[in-house]
Design goal:
The chain is mainly beta. It has strands at about 5, 10-15, 20-25, 35-40, 45-50, 55-60, 65-70, 75-80, 90-100, 100-105, 110-115. It is built from no helices and 11 strands.
Length: about 120
């Protein structure tokens, strides 16, 4: 059983930075691709960033140049560095581990960006 815990969310002003962490336990972390998703009130959940088992990142157009996803397999942790935050980044952020159709989700962490 894979268990995920997100942390690092909070309330920040626009233009500031925040780093989210997702710590995994219960399985071999390195065999999973990891994605960061977010869901704002009244909106559908969307993929923000994804990193493969080989460390190759992909980003949604809305966050390119501002967000950076990375992973530390020795610590079983994936990070999302968020710079130049905008009010539209406000959402609950979730990490997801996936491998061959098997998906695991964390509980989420709230990010609120004030104008």
């Amino acid at each position: 059983q894979v268990q995920l815990v997100e942390s690092g969310g909070g309330l920040v002003q626009a233009g500031r930075s925040l780093r989210l962490s997702c710590a995994a336990s219960g399985s071999i972390f390195s065999i999973f691709a990891v994605g960061w998703y977010r869901q704002a009130p009244g909106k559908q959940r969307e993929l923000v960033a994804r990193i493969t088992t080989g460390g190759n990142p992909n980003y949604a157009d809305s966050v390119k140049g501002r967000f950076t996803i990375s992973r530390d397999n020795a610590k079983n942790t994936v990070y999302l560095q968020m710079n130049s935050l905008k009010p539209e980044d406000t959402a609950v952020y979730y990490c997801q581990l996936s491998r061959r159709g098997y998906d695991y989700w964390g509980q989420g962490t709230q990010v609120t960006v004030s104008s």
